[in-house]
Design goal:
Blueprint lengths: L6 E2 L5 H16 L9 E2 L2 H27 L7 H25 L2 E6 L5 E7 L6 E9 L5 E10 L9 E2 L1 H11 L1 H14 L12 H7 L1
Antiparallel strand pairs: 1-7, 2-3, 3-4, 4-5, 5-6
Helix pairs in contact: 2-3, 4-5
InterPro entries: Spc2/SPCS2
GO cellular component, one term: signal peptidase complex
Protein name: Signal peptidase complex subunit 2
Length: about 210
Amino acid sequence: MASSEVHKVPVYSVNDIKSTTDDALAPYLGSLPQPYTFAQDHTKTNVHLFLGYAAVAIAGFSFYAERKLNWEATHSPWIIAAVLSYFTLNSLLTYWVWAVEAGEVFRGKRKSGETISIRSSVQKHSPLYKLRVQYKSAQGKVLQEKEIETSFTKWFAADGTFHPEPLRAWLAGEIEVLGLAAKETEKKTGGVASLVGVQEDTKDVKRRK
């Protein structure tokens, strides 16, 4: 089932194309048929936001103190501590982005305990979209780990229109658990949405035919 919303991006902006593709992963993985649905884990994102907002809040406090209390206030132990805290938080944020998140765009968990981690990357002026996928059992055993890549032109038209179905088809063809989910969706919908990753009741599909 094709999406009714048309999404266009500048075709020469690799960052925009990558971001649009990255953003399409969570809705797809979160709408797979049970028991394959992945609930997204936002822990790393929440830590990222906390560090970022905390640094901004401290910077705002320091600016307010300087404007309202004049230059003398900047010599206060509180202001010095705030400035040191700001640089510490920014350093932690930089470390978190490069060493902990390390390009991860999705981390999710099934009800049965299996987890999936997907990291994406691109090279400047390259049309190739690269993913590193790691799928683990509930006990932490690696069930599948691989790197895959293909061209953005598989799901972006020449005018920048984004078509999610080819992206989902590519993922289902490369990642075993998503391939199984696609087969399950096809079974439930009679092929109506075999690769779209929608949760629909079979009776509802038949009523729309």
